[in-house]
Structure formats: C-alpha cells, structure tokens
Specification:
The structure holds 2 protein chains of 2 kinds. Chain A is mainly beta. Chain A is 0% helix and 53% strand. Chain A is globular and about 40 Å long. Classes of the chains: A mainly beta, B mainly beta.
Amino acid sequence: GAVVSQHPSRVICKSGTSVKIECRSLDFQATTMFWYRQFPKQSLMLMATSNEGSKATYEQGVEKDKFLINHASLTLSTLTVTSAHPEDSSFYICSATDSSYEQYFGPGTRLTVT
Amino acid sequence: AQSVTQLDSQVPVFEEAPVELRCNYSSSVSVYLFWYVQYPNQGLQLLLKYLSGSTLVKGINGFEAEFNKSQTSFHLRKPSVHISDTAEYFCAVIRSPNDYKLSFGAGTTVTVRA
C-alpha cells in the first residue's frame, strides 16, 4: 500500500521559535496533501489542503501566516509553525492522495512548545 | 452541511465478543464513506471504504461495514474482537465527488478486555 512518512515524529521547541514538519509520499505522487491537527481525545481537524505548485487552501479559523504550508513537489509538503506558543502544542497529521478518494495518512508529529 | 455522527464515544468489550460501532452521516449528495483506526500516538490506518457497489464492505482485520442509504448509516462490525483491536475508530465521509476533503466523526474508543 501507499506509504506516507512524517518527520520528525516528536519535537520540543521553545516558545517563539519556528518548527518545520515534513510530509512525504514514499511510493506515489501526491497531487494533494492535507494537514490535520488533533487534540488529545479528539477527532482530526482539517487545517489546510495543499496542491503541488500552488498556494494552500486554509480552513476557516486557521491562520495562514502562522501555519505556513509549502507543497514544493509531488512527494513533499511541509508545515511550518511560526512563532510557536504553548497552545500550538498538538499532534499534527498529514495525509496524501493521488487524486483517488482514499487518503493515506502519515504517522503524525507530536509538537510540544515549552 | 455534511456531518458525521458517531453515536458511541466509548465501547468496552470483552475479548472474543462481537462489537458494533455506529456511524450516521447527513448529506444530500452521493457520499463516499470510510472507517479508520488509530492506535495510540500513531496516524490513521484505513479499515475499509464504501465508494459504490455492494453495500456490505469487508475490510482488514476481520472488520466489515454496511452502507444503509435509507438510514444514512455506515456501522462497523467485527464478530470477535482481540485485545489488539483496542484503539480509536473514526468514521469519515468525503464531502462531495469533486472534493477530496474528509469530514471525521468524533471517534469511538474501543477497549477490549480479557
């Protein structure tokens, strides 16, 4: 099956710094990638949709200047949390699709902002 | 607006007993339905999906689900659970045929006890 990786799996950063999370599709070309945020014991919340070579589309309420998304190639999308604060601490999950109706999910990145 | 309702937030079950996780959706258009499983601190793994065809869908790990259009339901079942089935289960739906975005239910925590 299709494999999506995320790096890093865990990251701890200080308040005010920026953190970059990578999402890669390892064995297929991902025309679209999605970024989700998941709080403890809760469901996934879609943050943005990323298409290769174009600007990401953000869901209502998600600050595009705080959560920078770059989809530079058909196998790589990055999410940068800028000027992170403790309330940004969360589990971030990406998914990728090859234009089918199935999304392949990465293993997630646990971000802790101290 | 499309939404997904998972009627049970927590389902405790004994090993080798059957389990059913309920999911209802609301939509006025054709839908594509999914069940995902999430183990602690991991991403999501697809259990099964309904896109068209037979309303009884068989997935991995012995799970199956039945699409019921008249009741707008897509309940997940397994006739005999194992300890390893302890996880979070999410029902999800594609919002429209032209939109790859997933809407997730709140999730159901399944705890299997010996």
